[in-house]
Design a protein that fits this description.
It is a single chain. By secondary structure, the protein is an all-alpha fold. 82% of the residues lie in helices and 0% in strands. It is built from ten helices and no strands. Helix 8 packs parallel to helix 10. The longest helix is centred in the middle third of the chain and has 21 residues.
Length: 207
């Protein structure tokens, strides 16, 4: 069992199992912790452990390698995006997408497309970012994953603002807000409301 808030304990266990040469245990603890480590901005730890495991995939059970690599690559990509290493982020998002498509993990494909949209937005490549965000939205709609859809609509809306398509941006944010209310996604509600405010602010800049 991984105790969600005790990351010093989890990291100690990862060190223990690494030196005990039990990489499968390291991978289990790493994958169960990465999302929370990203949330609390422990990007260096995510990069460190995911790189270590990706470099040792051949020492993990063969039937788990592709799934582990898919998940590790996605976490690595997100961490690299957060620290501004955008080219590395692209490489790992694309690798995770490739593996997710091979195993028909459509939700993971959509999540990685959303991540790529952020990378391209950060680089000022708004048309490319929009295309990836739209792919993510399409897949989440097909999967009827409303929580994933809410997140991707916010990302798409931000790109529409950059492209000065304010009507479309507002529509995306309002749909996201409604979905977040439906599923009690408090953080998503605050993001959508903040983004709706950005539309008015951005339009003032061009008056």
């Amino acid at each position: 069992t991984v105790y969600g808030n005790d990351f010093d304990y989890v990291l100690a266990l990862m060190h223990h199992w690494r030196w005990a040469d039990n990489l499968e245990k390291v991978a289990i603890y790493c994958l169960s912790s990465c999302q929370r480590l990203l949330q609390i901005s422990h990007f260096a730890e995510v990069i460190r452990w995911c790189i270590f495991l990706v470099g040792n995939l051949m020492n993990l059970p063969e039937h788990l390698r592709d799934d582990y690599q898919m998940q590790l690559s996605s976490y690595l990509a997100t961490a690299y995006e957060r620290v501004g290493e955008y080219e590395a982020a692209k490489v790992y998002f694309e690798k995770s997408i490739e593996l997710a498509e091979q195993s028909s993990r459509n939700g993971m494909v959509a999540s990685n497309y959303a991540g790529l949209s952020v990378v391209y937005r950060q680089q000022g490549l708004y048309h490319e970012g929009r295309d990836f965000a739209e792919r993510s939205v399409t897949i989440y709609r097909q999967q009827q994953d409303e929580q994933g859809l809410a997140d991707s609509l916010n990302k798409l809306g931000l790109l529409k603002i950059r492209l000065r398509d304010y009507q479309a941006a507002q529509s995306h944010f309002e749909e996201s807000l409604a979905l977040c209310h439906k599923h009690h996604m408090e953080y998503g509600i605050s993001v959508a409301m903040h983004n709706l405010g950005l539309i008015a602010d951005d339009q003032k800049d061009y008056d």
